[in-house]
Design goal:
Four copies of one chain form a homotetramer. Chain A is mostly helical. The first copy, chain A, folds into two domains: 2-134, Four Helix Bundle (Hemerythrin (Met), subunit A) (Up-down Bundle), CATH 1.20.120.350; 144-249, Helix Hairpins, CATH 1.10.287.70. Helix content of chain A is 71%, strand content 0%. Chain A has helices spanning 2-21, 27-50, 53-84, 88-93, 95-102, 105-112, 118-127, 131-134, 143-152, 154-179, 188-199, 212-228, 230-249. In chain A, helix 2 (27-50) packs antiparallel against helix 3 and helix 9 (143-152) packs across helix 13 (230-249). Mean pLDDT of chain A is 75; it is low at 115-122 and 138-142. Chains in contact: A-B, A-C, A-D, B-C, B-D, C-D. At the A-B interface, helix 2, helix 7, helix 8, helix 9 and helix 11 of A face helix 10, helix 11, helix 12 and helix 13 of B. Chains A, B, C, D: Pfam families: Ion_trans. Chains A, B, C, D: Keywords: Ion channel, Ion transport, Membrane, Potassium, Potassium channel, Potassium transport, Transmembrane, Transmembrane helix, Transport, Voltage-gated channel. Chains A, B, C, D: Its main location: membrane.
Chain lengths: 279, 279, 279, 279
């Protein structure tokens, strides 16, 4: 009986913590989330600033201390999540569980494996910390609408990218033969790099065609890239347009069955009866 | 009685001036606005030309005199606006009030604070004068249609830019590790600059990847930028399309209730009765 | 009587010539037009090839002879047009009349005004010959559909370009102050050139920001350019979509009054009666 | 009788082989196709890697052996296709027949024509092998939807590209005169190359305007390119949108004649009767 109560009390603490840490519907839960986001952004900003040589030599030590503070905060957060999660093993295996672990592990690993290549390894490991930022995605579920439109146009976009890849490969081979290693096209993979730089209209200018024929093919490649940029735009726009019309059609008045109400309409514009909230 | 009349007369002058200066519905008001726009464009053009070394050494003095003329004209305009405004304090605090003041203040400040760093300070202060151009916005209210479409798609665009920022941060960190300070990627902030240059397909070529792995990641970044350029276009296009259909639906014939009339239609195309002017 | 016949015969020749030269509905007229287009393209190609130093030194003489042949052909064509036109003066004053004259005049002027700066002047005058290409426009009337969509979205596009200009001017001034003449931003006009290169995502890389603040502003400029590219696309797409729907609505069956027939439909899909040809 | 049986047996083998090699509806046929695709990608990847100097000097011999293996595999495949095709001559003349032959011929030609310019010729011939990749297109018929939309907007796009060509030619000539051979604009064809680099917003920076007037024209060219990028996007988007609506309209319920069903709908949303599969 005594034990049972203890377990019950534990459960109550767990439940409360879970609502704060995993939930976003209580005031404390929101405060927790917001302060976590601030910590993530601050810690990533520090890692970034530390890579500037001038900043590192001056403030490197202070940044190091701050980084340890953030690591400890995130470790406590990870342990709390493990403790109050309903299914801890499922959490550990989930995408965010892995990201949470990866964002604290590097700092500890750097402690146990110091040595000659100390600095570099740390730097690389530290960079995994930016995955902490990915946690921010948790707080945004609006992206789903865009994602759905993108997935629905996925098949068409795949064919588009497949065709572009074929064109890139063919053009790269031709340019490799036409320009040759003397003009910077040292190999076909490098030629593919040049073609992508050109077809996406980036145009660094680190490799440029020198021969007349090469410049003619380059001009053709640019016009091609300029034209085909229209295709994914067209596909996606048509898909988003349809998605919008569809979501409007879903708003059907349960009284007179008229559809096509605006997303923010409250009453049916035909019979005046109240509309159900959007699905 | 005498005083009252005086006040009334003053009020009449004020009212007339207000209609000319703030209004655009009288012929004089339109003339005033147009000559003001011409003055603004001329004065800004002069400031711009003055920054060219060859022009400054030759015509610097004449440009200086012209600038003072424009400053005096704009000062008189500012005082007149203050005088004839119905609520002078509200005008001073409004966006255009502040801009009007900022566009004349620098010239006077340059008078009172000359010194060693004379030229540079003047130049910087003078540049604030370009805010005068912002006044032109006052004469265009058509932009609201575009603004509304942009605001309505704001939430989707925000998520888009948030996702792009995350991708930029992750790619920048990876490129910093892969290429390193030796190839121009001296710090993560600089790496972020490179990623933005690449993902927006600007491609200056001041920093370019040298290693094979770096070039592969760069190629991926470009293709990504090339693809995601489609997303905001798709969102905005769908929104503008809907906005157009909506404004057409608003044109309802008050006689037979038929909707969907063209923006420039005058008579209902179903019953022939005159349509109300567009809302 | 005799004279009258003569006049009539002359008129018949004129009419026949007019149908061949100005019309495109006879077989001879089509042959005339096609051979004229071929002549124009050949003559312009020759002018272009002649500017390559290697080609000029080798084949300069032959090209010169060919150019004279084309000039004579186009002169005969011009005189014939003058002769058989119903209103010769109207033709001379029309856009194509002026272009036709401009495309033959330079060669003759080069004959009468030789001198010291012979080569250069000729070259510049010769270049006017490319206006001959503009004649090709005569053979395409399909562009009107696109033009109408563009004109209808003109007001919105103007506001867009006006806003972009304001942003460009403000950003240019800021960059001039931040980077200064030392880093290539020698004057505000040059700074405007840099801003346009950046905001249109061209990115030559001849002028690039060197300071951290400058690079941050540049990154902002790029993201801005990347975003606002969506706006004219959205406006034009919505306009073209509407134009297509409108042209479909115009296809109304005169029997049952049903609208919305496809552009290439021949029979009404509701009552089966023949549709009128497209307006 | 015996012979007839033999012929029949042969025919059965042929038919079975044909179903495996040309068909995709049996399990073996799918396995055959997938293994063929893997072979094609592997062989092309090897050709590409072989062009890297470091890889060639180390693994050149092994890659050579592998290439011969692939050549033999593709030769056997070609002979089998010839053998079991219903109309062998039609196959040889078809697009894929020519591509299949071109992808194996170079390796054999390299055997019979060795010599002084051995390496280069082989390399060029080898590159034709990438046409093997084109075979992949056979496995994708989804592209037709996109192709149809593109063909339908073909006339408008042609006029667009024709106008762009005219603008490019005129701007190139002007830039050639303004900048001249001293600033990299050595001939009009080169000037055309620069204009295309600029108008497509690629912007290599290998040729950049040096004079003020040239930079002003360049800025105009960029803004033009930035604006006209919207036109093909608009055309194609409107066309794809219409194509989608049209394919929805085609889904008509045979019971109540209601149209406009979703592409993946199974039952009519008005009377509940089953819909026919999509056309």
């Amino acid at each position: 009986m005594q034990e049972d109560k203890q377990v019950n009390q534990d459960d109550t603490v767990k439940l409360k913590l879970r609502r704060v840490i995993f939930g976003t519907d209580t005031r404390l839960g929101r405060y927790f989330d917001i302060s976590l986001i601030v910590c993530i952004i601050l810690s990533v900003t520090l890692v970034f600033l530390d890579t500037i040589a001038a900043v590192h030599s001056k403030y490197g030590d202070i940044i190091g201390i701050f980084e340890w503070c953030f690591t400890i905060i995130f470790t406590i957060e990870y342990l709390l999540r493990l403790y109050c999660s309903a299914q801890p093993i499922q959490y550990v295996r989930s995408f965010y569980g892995v990201v949470d672990l990866l964002s604290i592990l590097p700092s500890y690993l750097a402690l146990f494996f110091p040595g000659a290549n100390f600095t570099l390894v740390i730097r690389i490991l530290r960079l995994f910390r930016i995955f902490r930022v990915l946690k921010l995605l948790r707080y945004l579920s609006e992206g789903n609408v865009l994602l759905r439109a993108m997935l629905q146009s996925g098949r068409k976009v795949f064919i588009f990218f497949f065709s572009v890849s074929l064109i890139v490969v063919v053009l790269s081979s031709i340019m490799f033969v036409v320009e040759g290693p003397g003009n910077g096209f040292t190999s076909i993979p490098k030629s593919i790099y040049w073609t992508i730089v050109t077809i996406t209209t980036v145009g660094y200018g680190d490799i440029t065609p020198e021969t007349s024929l090469g410049q003619a093919i380059a001009a053709f490649t640019m016009l091609l890239g300029y034209s085909i940029i229209a295709i994914p735009t067209g596909i996606l726009t048509a898909e988003i347009s349809q998605e919008m019309v569809r979501s409007k059609d879903l708003r059907r008045c349960s009284n007179c069955l008229k559809t096509g109400h605006e997303k923010d309409a409250i009453y049916c514009d035909h019979c005046g009866s109240e509309l159900e909230t959007e699905i």
